[in-house]
Amino acid sequence: MNAPLTATAIREAVIAGTLSAPAFLRERWQQLRRLNDGARDPAWISLAGEAQLEGQLAALAQRDPAQCQL
After folding, report:
1. What is residue 51's three-state secondary structure?
2. How far apart are CA 67 and CA 63, in angstroms?
3. What's the DSSP call for residue 65?
């Protein structure tokens, strides 16, 4: 996937219907999981679990992309 890398470009692509926000976010989540597999990342920001991601995507699906803030 050649996904846009700025928040503005991602938002515009979702509004235009050329990018699926759930598919994009799942792919990025999977990429982060692979990168951190087995690593003990000392960062205070933790990577969401799959259930948490799916819950957030379900909530996102109920919203109009044009009304979502960055």
Report:
1. helix
2. 7
3. G
